[in-house]
Amino acid sequence: MRLANTSVAVSDERAHTAQSLSGDAYATFIHDLYVEFLIMDSHHSYSQVKGVSTGTTILAVKFNGGVIIGSDSRASMGESYVSSKTINKLIQVHDRIFCCIAGSLADAQAVTKMAKFQLSFHSIQMESPPLVKAAASIMRELCYNNKEELQAGFITAGWDRKKGPQIYVVSLGGMLLSQPYTIGGSGSTYIYGYVDAKFKPDMSLEEATQFSTNALALAMGRDNVSGGVVHLVVITEAEVKHVVVPGNKLPKFHDE
Amino acid sequence: ISLLPLQYDLSASTFSPDGRVFQVEYAIKAVENSSTAVGIRCKDGVVFGVEKLVLSKLYEEGSNKRIFNIDRHVGMAVAGLLADARSLSEVSREEASNFRSNYGHDIPLKHLADRVAMYVHAYTLYSAVRPFGCSFILGSYDEDDGPQLYMVDPSGISYGYWGCAIGKARQAAKTEIEKLQMKEMTCRELVKEVAKIIYIVHDEVKDKAFELELSWVGEVTKGRHELVPKDIKEEAEKYAKVSNRSSGNSDEEKKIEWQSLVTATLVGLFSHRIRI
What we know:
The complex is a heterodimer.
Chain A lengths: L1 E2 L2 E2 L4 H8 L4 H24 L10 E6 L2 E6 L3 E3 L3 E4 L5 E5 L2 E7 L1 H22 L5 H14 L6 E9 L3 E7 L5 E3 L2 E4 L7 H7 L6 H18 L7 E7 L3 E6 L11
Antiparallel strand pairs in A: 1-2, 3-4, 3-12, 4-13, 5-6, 7-8, 8-9, 9-10, 10-11, 13-14
Helix pairs in contact in A: 3-4
Chain B lengths: L21 H11 L4 E6 L2 E9 L13 E5 L2 E7 L1 H22 L5 H14 L11 E9 L3 E7 L5 E3 L2 E4 L3 H10 L7 H15 L8 E9 L7 E2 L2 H18 L3 H20 L6
Antiparallel strand pairs in B: 1-2, 1-8, 2-9, 3-4, 4-5, 5-6, 6-7, 9-10
Helix pairs in contact in B: 2-3, 4-5, 5-6
Keywords (chain A): Cytoplasm, Hydrolase, Nucleus, Protease, Proteasome, Threonine protease
GO molecular function, one term (chain A): threonine-type endopeptidase activity
Protein name (chain A): Proteasome subunit beta
């Protein structure tokens, strides 16, 4: 039977009962069915982790003098089709500020496009490069005010003159949190232990690069919806460097 | 300069033949009728001083404030039509609050001054509204950008200053401010000087009693705009009164001196006619 614009599968018996109802009784029937549908749907999506945070591993790490922001490069549709092997999930929103995206790719692209525009306008008005916090706040406002429609989470990282390198997590519902390192996406669940154990504050660039590459490789090795190449962007005061580590150059671990 | 505005001054949407908008100039005049407000920026902060004329003995002390808090780190001292000034302080507060909500950090003072100045300017464009009859001084302190001071007038212009004064005695106050080496002073030293300036420019003949309102924002307040604490204010006022008396520059004293000189001369001339 159709409930507004959604089709709901109910037993034949129930559908048959519905046809004989009228007025208040019918309204109550529909209401109960709708409530049931909502509960069922939320259970339905919880049992499928991929429904909420889809096919990605993203991370950001603060090191001495900058941040490294990294991701895998796989876009998936469902659990078994890889729609792109080489997608770039690291979006530049300003000269020294990047965002990495997790969740619905369409939503993420829409949000980052809007944020990029607002940030550029803000930066021109201020006559100075924007703060990373300002960029993250813009993303947060967009995520929070449109939380019903959107399904995307972000890691915003970059460098600014005031506070140096910073990392902000903007989650699905619009939470904003500052962290020294952070991981996200479906693949992140497999590497919480690794990053918690191996992170050190104030690492050098080489140590931080090795840390990020290892973490992403481990996640890509275990998560079926993360894979491809490793994209890393190193952001410092002086420059922004994009590093790509192809699949065959990734570090190998004992599982392979 | 045309002395008779001749119908060109009826609305803000009209220029005069010599290129002036009279309504805006009249609004500036309204500010000049109000008592003086002074703002000075020093090495590590900004200090505001306002000469608040007490029109009635029945007024509660400390009411009718002329210094407002716009955000934690921004203060605003006003002169002119007080109701207009209050409305603008609400506008500034909203601007600062929206900025913080959107961008997650304190609004830079230059941006706030630009935004409020744009708002004030909008009221100088149409005949349906009148320009705001108040000028105000905005000041803030930030760890990275240091102290900042901006002044906005009814025409909608905003300038950055090291020291500025608005109101009836602004010329006299400006002269006093120019004597200071504010770039090398700290807030604590500056508070006393600001109190002194207000006491100097206060006209004891025309305006009787006044209340001094002092506020500051700087390293000493950790970046928060606050009224100067009572003990520091009393110390500053004491310094101001003493300096004023010793310099003997006030008009009333000059008058008294002159009167006594005349009396003495007359007594001297006619002393031989006095019978006891």
